[in-house]
Structures are given as structure tokens and as C-alpha cells.
């Protein structure tokens, strides 16, 4: 017996949310592109814990895809997603069509500035503009108290925080820990696109992040040498490195010497599949 | 005894509006750059008529000025503005500093697309991006039911409508008729920057709009000939024409033959002062 209500039209979700608001209930929003995995579900659980009503959006947003193949191949399975969300007692799923969010004549875009041009932004031009634009729309359609995002897409989380701060949106953004497979591979909807061999090799991403921590633990603080070692590890597994970076976790600007906690970020291609991951590298006591 | 409350901080206006909302009162928003004239006051009166609470914002938005001189010379008189708004029983004035709306690290901007690149957008690059960006912030800080804008800045009104539509903002946008001086010059804060001679000559703008209507009434439907005549009239008054346009009032795309109601738009420089105006040219019975 399904309890989760599925809405596909802007005016339907707006009417529902208006009603929820008028009852004074708090709303948690979990924006996703579907193909839900344990990472998404941890966001839903956090929303269930903190908010009275949880809304999950499922929308493969064309604006944030810079490669047509990636958009075409992105896995979609709404029925399976809804069944999972129903088991978690999610109140509402908003799953609009591209035409519902971008009707003919649509023309607006949001530029988030320098933060959106580095790292992922450099390799995926327009990606964060697409993310910011669709989230602005979703935040307007579903004026939640809190929205939940995974640390796995760390730069996205920072971009969302910048959008909220710069536009004075009255919403709280909560980041949640990355959920991993047993061998450490970060959960991602794109993992299912990997061949068995590629899947086996993909653990090199997490291993290289762990290697960075180990080098620091062993007294290596030179970013260049640590990144070299990470790259080498990826290459050994026949992965193609888009970037490896050691950055300040707040500003995402590069660190040359690791004198305090530093974020290691990595983007790798295995065959046609592009995967990203990151972890905080702990330096000394802080 | 002043009743109008003046707020200058984001968190103050947010707290006030949250309170108003919790009482279930409707909110009307009149965004201005101050130097209030009868045009602004007609917007305030419309808001007073339609909404229980009226908020006027006064902010000379640096993002929407493409010329430094224009920003520097733009007239400012907060004390006079507040005194006028107090007489109209405006509930709240929000008058933030530039640093309050654009603190260090601010980096977001909104691109509204093609509509923002033509006419005013062509002569004032970045202008409508600045308008859209600040309005998005103001709409978030002051989630009003209705916001009021003058027809004088007709393209701005269309841009605002596009922002609201494209971002699914739950706010109603109301356009209000242009208020004019006795000789027809549209009320504008920039009028006070005109020398007495320039002020005398400035009536050529309205005259040229009236001339367009007269030509149509006399059976001239060729846009090119009508615009030529309008330009000639401005030149005779020593005005410099930035543009004269006859466009579809909905799309702002040019009309070659006036077969239905058409919007005449004009932008003129008199000395250092740039003025814009427009009027609907009625064709036949509709």
C-alpha cells in the first residue's frame, strides 16, 4: 500500500507544499537525479530525522550535462526509485518532465562565479550553472526549511551554499557523509555503467585517497608529491585522471604544503564512465 | 509621528517579514532606487490598495549600472524619500547598503537570456543581469505576494516577468501606468539632472511617441517611416537617439508593418542624461 505521493506538475507540488506550510510542518528537500542508491537514502533518512515532511525530487536535469552521451546514458528507473522511497515513508516525490521545468521560451541561467569554474567546472563547462539554475527553481517550487546534499559531490555542495548565501534564500543546506561500497568505491548512479573489469579497477579512486592520508601520516606534506603518487596509482589501474587536487575545504583553492586539514579531490575516467570522489586529509591534530 | 519603519539589515527585514507572514497578512513590494517621484508613489498606492502590508525597497544597485558616472551621479535622498513614504503610510522601508547585499565573496549573477540583450540591453550591457540579480535577492529577503513595477521601464517589467516565470517564483508582478509631467515627459529620477534647457528639450521624447500614434491614425503603417519621423523630431531638439523601436509588446521583437497594437520604445541622450520612454501605439480597433 503506497503512501508516497508522486507529483509531476509544478502547480501540483506548489499546491501540496502550500498546504503543508499552512499546517506549519517543517519540510526537508532531497534533490536527486534518480537511480537511487544508499547515498541518496542516507540523505532521505537525515531529512526524515530532522523534518516533518520529506520531499524527494527526481529530475535528470539536461542543463547540467555538458556531454550528450552522458545525459543519454544516465540511468533512469522511476518505478524502482519510487518503490524505495515508499519503503522509507517519503511523503512526496516530485518528478517533472524536462518540458515542465524548461518550457518553450525558457531562457534564464545562473552563473555562480569563480567557484563554479575550477575543478569539475573546468572539465564540465556549464555544469554548475545548470545545477544552480535547476536548484533555484526547485527551491522556489518547494520552499523547504532544509535541503540535503552528499559530500561525494563536494564542490556541488559548496556551489549550493554559495547560491543560497548570494541570493539570500531562506533555506538551510546540510551536507551528509559519502556512502561507500565494501571496497571503498563511493556510491554513484554511474557505477552501474561500469563493466565488471572497470568496476574492479574503480577501487583505485578510493585507494588513492587513502594513500594521500597515509603519506601525510608518514610525514609527507608536499602536495605535489602526494598528488603525483595518487595519479600514479590511478594510472596503474588504467584510469584516466581528469584532475587530482589538494585544496582548502572552505575555498577549494590549492594547498602547496599540507599544514592543516586538506580536502583531496579526484576525477577519473574508466572507459566511458567518469567518476569523482574526495576525502578530508587530516593533518596533525587539526 | 513616523509610522514607517526603516530597516537596513537583511536579518532585520527577514525577521519582520516572517512575523507579517505568520499573521497571514498579504505583502506588496515596491522595489525602487529612491529619489522617489509621482511614478513611484503610484506604485505604492497600488500596493496599498491591493495588499495589507507595503514594503518599499530603496537601493541604488551598483550591479545594474554599466556607466560609473551614471552610478555616481544617480540622485540619492533617503530622508526625503522616507518622509514621502511615511505620508503614504508605507509599513516598511528596506534600505540596505551595497555591502549588505554584496558582501566580500559575493559572486552570483543571473542571465535572463535574449530578452535582456536587445534594446536597453544592447546599450547597457549587463544592466538587466544586475536588475534580475538584485530582484532575486529582494524577492528572497521579502517574499511578497505581489511586486509593482512601472510601464516606463517596460523592458525591465518584461525581464522581471521572465525571471519570475523561469525560476517559478511564487510572486505576482503588476505593471502600472507611466506618470508624466504636464508637458508629457515621463517622471524619472534622472529628470532632475537635466539643465533647464535640456528639460525644455526633453519633451521631444513624448512628442515623438505621440507623433507615432498620429502617423498611424493618419494611415501610415510602415515602421521604418514612422521611426524615421520620430528620430527626426528628437534630432531637431538636439537629442541623441540611442534607439527608436516599434515592437510586439509581448516579445519585444521588431514589427515592420503596424497591423496590430505595437509598442513604441525610445532611448535618448540629452547632454549627459539618458532618458527612456514608451507608449502603446493603437492600430485600428485593436
How would you portray this structure in words?
2 copies of one chain form a homodimer. With 286 residues, the first copy, chain A, is of the alpha/beta class. Chain A folds into 2 domains: 172 residues, HUPs (Rossmann fold, 3-Layer(aba) Sandwich); 91 residues, Pantoate--beta-alanine Ligase, Chain: A,domain 2 (2-Layer Sandwich). Chain A is 40% helix and 20% strand. A 6-stranded parallel sheet of chain A has the order 1-4-3-2-6-7, sandwiched between helices. In chain A, β2, α2 and β3 form a beta-alpha-beta unit. In chain A, α10 packs antiparallel against α11. The longest helix of chain A is centred in the middle third of the chain and has 15 residues. Chain A is globular. The N and C termini of chain A lie far apart (50 Å). The mean pLDDT of chain A is 97.
Distance between the first and last residues' Cα of chain A: 50 Å
- Report the CATH C-level class of the largest domain in chain A: Alpha Beta
Return the CATH topology of the largest domain in chain A: Rossmann fold
Strand order of the largest sheet of chain A: 1-4-3-2-6-7
Q: How large is the share of residues in beta strands of chain A?
A: 15-25%
How would you characterize the largest beta sheet of chain A?
Answer: 6 strands, parallel
Structural class designation of chain A: alpha/beta
Mean pLDDT across all residues of chain A, rounded? 97
List how many beta strands of chain A DSSP finds. 10
Run of helices and strands of chain A: EHEHEHHEHEHHEHEHHHEEE
Query: Quick one: overall form of chain A?
Result: globular
